[in-house]
Amino acid sequence: MRPDPASAAAARLACRSTVAPTAGMAPGFTQCNMISLPRDWAWDFLLFAQRNPKPCPVLDVTDPGSHQTALAPGADLRTDIPLYRIWRDGLLADEVADATEAWAEHPDLLTFLIGCSFTFETPLQAAGIEVRHIAQGCNVPMYLTSRACRPAGRLHGQMVVSMRPIPADRVAEAAMISGRFPAVHGAPVHVGDPGGLGIADLSRPDFGDPVQIRDGEVPVFWACGVTPQAAVMASKPPFAITHAPGHMFVTDIPDSQWQV
Amino acid sequence: MRPDPASAAAARLACRSTVAPTAGMAPGFTQCNMISLPRDWAWDFLLFAQRNPKPCPVLDVTDPGSHQTALAPGADLRTDIPLYRIWRDGLLADEVADATEAWAEHPDLLTFLIGCSFTFETPLQAAGIEVRHIAQGCNVPMYLTSRACRPAGRLHGQMVVSMRPIPADRVAEAAMISGRFPAVHGAPVHVGDPGGLGIADLSRPDFGDPVQIRDGEVPVFWACGVTPQAAVMASKPPFAITHAPGHMFVTDIPDSQWQV
C-alpha cells in the first residue's frame, strides 16, 4: 500500500509543537539526520560523508543559507525537527525546539540531510520483526564505538551505532531487509558482542534510551547518523546545528525510493 | 573464487603501455571512471555527484595535487589509465596515454574516482549473460541522453548511459544482478525503446563502439560515469583531465566489496 503523503506533512507539523523521538512516525516515509555547518566547513563535511558512507549517506545538501530541501518542498528545516542541538567549538551549547534564532546567527550555513535507520524499521515491522524501542515507546539506543571514521580535512571522529535486539533466528532476515536500503545505513556493521565495538555496557547508551534485551535475542548494530555529532565533538568546528539524536526530519520521500 | 590481487596490478602495468578499452581486464576487480578538476571546482563536482548518484557514484577523492588513491595504493593516477582526455574550457583539447605533463600544469587538481559498470560485468558473465562488447572485443557503446542531471553550482549537463543488449528472458536477472551494485551504477535506468532517452540511432553511439543487437534481445541502459565528461562539455570548467570513455582505472578493490 502506498503511504499517504499527507501523513509526512502532518508529522512535520506535529514536530513543530511536540518534542519526542520520531521513530514510528509517518510509517513508509524516509527520516533524516541533519547537520548544518558554516560554508567554510562544507567541503570537509561532504568529503567526510563520501569517505564514511555507512554512517553518513547524504540524501540532500541545501544551498548556503537555505532552509529548504528537495526531500520535502513545503518544509522549514529550522522548525520541522522536534528538537535541535546547538554546538559551539564542539561543545553542546543548547537544545531548542525551534532553531530559527540559531540559523539567523550564521546566514551562510549549509545543511546536510543524512539517511536514518528509522526508514527501514517499517519494512522490518512488516516482516514481523519487532522494533524494541518503538514497542517500548522510547528513543533508540545509540553508542559511540571504538571504530574510527576515515578523516577528511579537519573532520575526524568515531562511528556511532544504533542497536536493535533481534531474535537469533531473525538476524539474517533483518540484515537482508536493511541491506536493501544502503541510502539509510544499509546492513548492520556488527552483530553480537558489544565489546567488539568497544561498547562496555548496553544498558548505558551514549545517546537515546536503553531497551530490554530478551533471552534468545542478539544485539544488532547499525551505523548511525549521529556520527556527524561525534565528529563535531572531536573536531570542534566553531558552530553547528544538528537534530537531537532520535528526533529526526520526516521527509516526503517513500522508503521504497531507496530500495535496491 | 577470490580474484588474484596481482591481476589488478598487472592490468595497471599493461595500461601504462597499451591503449585499449579495459572491459574484461582483471575480472573481479572494480574499475573506475576518473575526473580531475581544479580545486576551485571540487565542491561543485562533489555536490553534482551527490545529486546524481546513479551516474556519479564517487568511490574516492584524492587530496589536492595527489596522484594516489586508497583504492589502489601502489598506483599512479597519471599513468595507469590507458588513455586520458585533456579538456580546456569544455572542449576536448587532447588525448594522451600519459597525463603526467597535464597534471604538472595544474598542481592543485583534485581527482574523483567514480564507479564503472564494467565492475558488474563479471557477475553478469558468471550468470551466463553474454556481455556483447566483451564478446565482440570492442568498447561499450555509450550515448548522451535527453535526461538532465540535477545541477550543482556551475555544473550541469545530460546523463550519459552505457548499453548492453540482453535476451528478453534475462533482462530481469541482469537488472537484479547489477542492482546489487549501486556503487557502480546499480540497476538499469531504462529498458527498451532508445527514443525514451532521446537516443535516435543505437548504431551511432556518442562514445565507444556500436555492438550487434540480435533478434529477441532488448537494449538495456545503465547510467554511465562518462556523465561528468558531458557536464564538462556543457559547463566549461577551465581545465579538466578525464579517462577516455571505456579506458578505465583498474583498482585493487574486489567487486564483492560493493555488493548489497
From TrEMBL, chains A, B:
Keywords: Lyase. Its EC number is 4.2.1.-. InterPro entries: D-Glu_cyclase (IPR009906), Putative_hydro-lyase (IPR038021), UPF0317 (IPR016938). One of its GO terms (molecular function) is lyase activity. It is an enzyme of class 4 (lyase). The keyword Lyase applies. Belongs to the D-glutamate cyclase family. PANTHER family: D-GLUTAMATE CYCLASE, MITOCHONDRIAL. This is Putative hydro-lyase PARHAE_01026. The lineage of its organism: Bacteria, Pseudomonadati, Pseudomonadota, Alphaproteobacteria, Rhodobacterales.
